[in-house]
Amino acid sequence: MIRFCHFRPAWAAAAFLAAGSLLISTVSHAQLVTTNAQLDAIVALVDEDVILRSELDMAVAGIVERVRASGETMPPMNLLESQVLERLIIRELQVQRAMQTGIRISDADIDQALVTLAQQNNMTVQQMRQVIESDGEDFSEFRRNIGEELMTERLRQRIVNGMDPITDTEVDILLASEDLAGGEYNVSHIMVSLPDGSTPDQVQAAQAKADDIHQRLTNGLDFASAAISYSDSQEALEGGLVGWRDLNSVPAFFADAIRGLQPDEFTQPIRSPAGFHIIKVNDFREQRQVVVKEYNARHIMVEIDELMSPRLAMDRIIEIKDKLDEGDDFAELAKEYSDDSTSANIGGDMGWFPPEAYGERVYQTLMAMQPNQISEPFQTEGGWHVMQLLGTREMDRTEEAIRAEAREKIMRRKADQEIDTVLRQFRDEAFVEVRLSGS
């Protein structure tokens, strides 16, 4: 979950992908309140920390900017503030738990993440800083915010890593399911949540709220706007967008509800242990065939090591290339000179392999060659090479791809459920006092 406050949308996506975690400010919110009590108001107490009015305002401004840019209908401001504040509370609980469980980050982590973030937005770190500060924002606060969100990602990853591994039996069961070949649905989701051990009155109130949302949708309310205004799901502030899923990568109740729905149709409120759900199908696509171009090649490698410097290796491979140009047999030269122990004795034959098998440099070399052509000498991390492309073929790898995707879908479904359960537990166990007017 990336912090949505004052990030531009592209930056939010980039920050989500950035590797590692970031440095968290040593100045807590509570300290800031102590020194700036007259300058900011507290909108929520979250265990031993607080959320300030200025944080909420920045977060709301970021959502308003995104909603306007997308053309969606702006929800009422009081509903938007409540939704954003709840997201900030969940984020704060995750940051606290991450700190309590020993998750730490370094200056090097934050610097590398900023470089990655800037590159993904086609700018330098200094240019990114100038843009941020030109918007009236503090760059050190920007660093801290990214750090907190990436810290929560590390916590989530720890939760996922603690799950039992996916077994081959689970994959086989999924592969045997009729739904596996049923295509993929692009879906959005609105959830009215229920606390653990909810009372009949709480269930009735949630049902009434879900029915009211459904009626508003039926009367023409935009689904994304309704999600932003009313949904308790993690995707609420993204308009409820879950994305592409097949029927085996979502819970059974979810799959049963959307099976057979056409694009732009949505369900009646559906009950689950977590609450009531309204699901919309945005689009549908058939299962795709996976066809991979494979290469058959052979090579001669001169390895770079303590006795063979890069310069000497280059000179040796040039000599070998000259022999090939003079008509010497490739296989015999490979047996005599190649340092690749896996292929030298079979004339340098690398067999059939997919394009990514031996790295980008080999792939780019092969891409520029015709069958039976011998390459110019080129260097990789392992040494200097000369290569001959023997042929290419198109192979249907749909079955292998489906099996790999099946494993990933099972993991994603379990991870989503586990993370949602843990976050709900964090919220239920925490002391939270909301001081937002009207709450």
Sequence-ordered SSE layout with sheet pairings:
Elements: H1 9-17, H2 29-35, E1 42-46, E2 49-52, H3 53-70, H4 77-100, H5 107-120, H6 125-134, H7 139-161, H8 168-175, E3 184-193, H9 200-218, H10 223-230, E4 241-245, H11 252-258, E5 270-272, E6 275-285, E7 291-303, H12 310-325, H13 330-337, E8 349-353, H14 360-367, E9 378-379, E10 383-396, H15 398-429, E11 432-434
What oligomeric state do the depicted chains represent?
A: single chain
Please tally the helical runs, counting DSSP H or I stretches of 4 or more residues.
15
Give the C-level CATH assignment of the largest domain.
Alpha Beta
Number of domains: 3
Range of strand content: 15-25%
CATH architecture of the largest domain: Roll
Largest sheet: number of strands, sense, barrel closure: 4 strands, antiparallel
Global shape: elongated
Number of strands: 11
**What gap, in angstroms, lies between the N and C termini?**
24 Å
Rg estimate, integer Å: 28 Å
User: How is the CATH topology of the largest domain named?
Assistant: Chitinase A, domain 3
Unreliable parts: 1-38
Class by alpha and beta content: alpha+beta
Order of the strands making up the biggest sheet: 4-3-6-5
Overview of this protein structure:
This protein has 439 residues and is α+β, with helices and mostly antiparallel strands. It folds into three domains: 9-162, Porin chaperone SurA, peptide-binding domain (Triger factor/SurA peptide-binding fold), CATH 1.10.4030; 168-288 and 400-433, Chitinase A, domain 3, CATH 3.10.50; 291-396, Chitinase A, domain 3 (Roll), CATH 3.10.50.40. Helix content is 48%, strand content 17%. The chain contains 15 helices and eleven strands. The chain has helices at 9-17, 29-35, 53-70, 77-100, 107-120, 125-134, 139-161, 168-175, 200-218, 223-230, 252-258, 310-325, 330-337, 360-367, 398-429, and strands at residues 42-46, 49-52, 184-193, 241-245, 270-272, 275-285, 291-303, 349-353, 378-379, 383-396, 432-434. The chain has a four-stranded antiparallel sheet with strand order 4-3-6-5. Strands 8-7-10-9 form a four-stranded antiparallel sheet. A hairpin with a 2-residue loop joins β5 and β6 (275-285). α3 (53-70) packs across α4 and α8 (168-175) crosses α15. The protein is elongated. The chain starts with 8 loop residues before the first helix and ends in a 5-residue tail after the last strand.
